[in-house]
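Query form — protein Anti-anti-sigma factor

QUESTION: What is the three-dimensional structure of this chain?
INPUT:
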Amino acid sequence: MSDDAFSMSLRPVAAGVVLGLKGDVDTHTAPGVLAGIRGLVLREGELLVLDVSGMRFCDSSGISAFIAARNHAAAARADVVLVGVPRQTLRVLGMIGLDALFTFRPNLDDALSARDANSAGGA
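ANSWER: The structure tokens for Anti-anti-sigma factor are given below.
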């Protein structure tokens, strides 16, 4: 896989931050993803959204980056949600038992709406 097929974006939202990953998340690109995750400052109660709706391929290095994101969020007492996970990646996460670690949403609007509804219900 090639770095040319990969891009990463960071966007603040009211609930927290969206980290968008497009292209191939693999052994070549995962170190950059990890660096991006480790550089995020999350506050308690915030939401880290990993938007992978543009991801074409994910190997074990990419899955490790998802776990690192979850651990980083947990250390800050923040939440993490995976958005737009491709079917094959969902299947792999399920096969290895990692689907229980994450909340999944089909799209970004759904993730943010669910967060808003949960916040309103808890207030």
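ADDITIONAL NOTE: The chain has one domain: 3-115.
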